[in-house]
Amino acid sequence: MSLNLADIRKDYSQKELSPDDCLADPAAQLEAWLNEAIAAQVNEPTAMNVASVDENGRPSARIVLLKGVEQGQLLFYTNYLSRKGRQLDARPYVAATFFWPELERQIRVEGQVRHVPEEVSDAYFASRPYTSRLGAWASEQSSEIGSKAVLVTRAAMFGARHPLNVPRPPHWGGYAITPERVEFWQGRPSRLHDRVLYTRDELGNWKTCRLAP
Ligand SMILES: Cc1cc2nc3c(=O)[nH]c(=O)nc-3n(C[C@H](O)[C@H](O)[C@H](O)COP(=O)(O)O)c2cc1C
């Protein structure tokens, strides 16, 4: 049986968006929409798809969780030796996308990334559940493993080594995205969607414009 994907379509009509509705700072606008997403009990409101590129300019993308918006920057945490970590350290630029179907909204963020200060990673790591902290040691993220048992054995080994306090692995920590281009998308009927783009003007101040859908 073949799937008839071409017939799957949805019209969007919930809300509107114009540059006049938007806050001056895109990070503040993102927080406002995040609050609405959380209030609307959107599934995984903090999940964002983060794309990186390899040395040949080939992109790869994966979901990570947004863990903070601090001084206009978006923070997420991962393994610095993972595929994404190595790519980001060599080419520190990302495109990140949120999609909240329940609100017919998308946010796109593009910008530069850097490691967050060690103490910021320490504080976030310490707030994670014990088993998640062990997992950060056990998982050599993105490397091939022969079986699930390898992972379980490593988790047990690190559990024996750190029965109470699990220190942050040096290869695990946060990235901060400094946005350079941010777009808010609101679905509208007849594919005439609303798009508001933030970029910086020549003085470095944020400006907005409307984009064709
Ligand atoms: C809902 C969801 C949340 C995730 N959150 C994170 C996260 O915060 N950090 C992370 O490193 N991986 C997270 N992952 C796993 C990544 O998508 C990915 O599999 C992993 O980071 C390895 O990616 P890489 O091999 O490209 O480095 C999450 C996956 C899902 C589906």
Structure report:
The chain is an alpha+beta fold. 26% of the residues lie in helices and 33% in strands. It contains five helices and nine strands, in the order αββββαββαααβββ. Strands 1, 2, 3, 4, 5, 6, 7, 8 and 9 form a nine-stranded antiparallel beta sheet that branches. The longest helix is centred in the first third of the chain and has 14 residues, at 26-39. It is globular, with a radius of gyration of 20 Å. The two termini are 34 Å apart. 24% of the residues are buried. The mean pLDDT is 97. The structure holds flavin mononucleotide (FMN).
Task: Give a nutshell description of this structure.
By secondary structure, the chain is of the alpha+beta class.
